[in-house]
TrEMBL record:
Keywords: DNA-binding, Repressor, Transcription, Transcription regulation. Residues 2-56 form the HTH lacI-type domain. SUPFAM superfamilies: lambda repressor-like DNA-binding domains, Periplasmic binding protein-like I. This is LacI family transcriptional regulator. It holds the Pfam family Peripla_BP_3. The gene is lacI_11.
Amino acid sequence: MSSIRELARRCGVSVATVSRVFNTPEVVSQHTRQHVLAMAAEIGYLPNESARTLATKKSNMVGLVWDTDHRRPGWRHPFLQDILVALKSALSAQGLHLLMLAPDQSPGLPGDQRFLRAVQRHNVDGVVVIDNGSRDPAVLALVDAPVPCVALDLRFTGPTCTYITSDNAGGGRLAADHLIERGHRRIATITGPLPAWPAAQRLAGFRAGLAAANLPLAETAIAGGDWYLDSGYTAMNQLLTREPRPTAVFAAGDEMALGAMRAIHEAGLRIPGDIALVGFDDIEVAALVPPGLTTIAQDKTGIGTAAAEAMVAMLLDPATPPEPITLPTTLVIRGST
C-alpha cells in the first residue's frame, strides 16, 4: 500500500497538503483536491484512520448501546438483526462505522457512568441506543451527555437527542380491530415487558380498540412476556387455563406469538379454528410457519435508515437535533386469523 509521502511526491505537493485534502479539504483548492484524490485512487492510497482521528478529533465511529444483560438472548432477535443491518448499511454509505459498546466495568465506577465512560474511551462521534426494556441509569445518562444520541423506541429528547419509533399504539389498535372484524369477542393479549414504552403503547392501542367496540379487557385476559419465544409459550399456557378461554390472542411480538402457537398446538387446539392469533413485527419466519402468522408489520429497514440519517444530521449540525420520527405500522393478514 502506498504511503502519504509517495502520494505527495507523485502529486508534486507537500505531505501537509495531502493531509489537508483528507482532513480539512475546505482549505485546499478544488483543483488540488481533485488532483490528489485522483492520484490516491490510481495508486491505491488509503489515509491512516488513526492519524485522521488525531488530526480531526473525529473517529467516524458511531457507538451502539443495547444492554440486554447476560441472561437475555437479545442479540439474536430477528427484529433487531434487521434493524442493525439497515443501520450499518446507511451509516457505511456516509463513511461512518458502527461500534458495539460494552459497558465499562472498571472497579469503583458509578453505575450510571458505565456507558458514558465507554463512549469517552472509544471517542465515538455519536451513539445509537436501542431499547432494552429497562430503565437502566447507565443508558438514561446518555440523554444528558454532550455526544449526539439517537434512540430507538425510547423517548430520548434533549439538546443532543432524538428518537425513532413505530406507531406502536396504532399497531395495537389494528390488531384489535382485525380480530373484532373476524367476529371475536373473547380476546386476550400477551404483552411485552411492561412498562417498556413500546409494550405499553401496544397494550394501550389494543385496549382502546376493544373499548371502542364495548369490549373491556379483563385483567385475566392479560399475560406478560419479554419479547422472546419461551415467554410467549408460558403466557399462552396461562391464558389457556383461565375462564372463559379466549378465542383470539394478540401477542405484542412475533417471537412471543410463535411461542404461543406452540402452546396452542400442544393443547390440541387449532389455529385459527379454536384460537386466532396476531403478532407484531413481521419477522421473516412469520410468513413461513404453518399457518402463516397474521401480524402488525414494522418498517425495520426504515427504522435503521432513519436512525442513521438522524445521526448524520446531528453530526453536521449538533446544535439542532432532528424532530422525533414515528413510522407507520401495517396489518399483514395470513392464515392464523
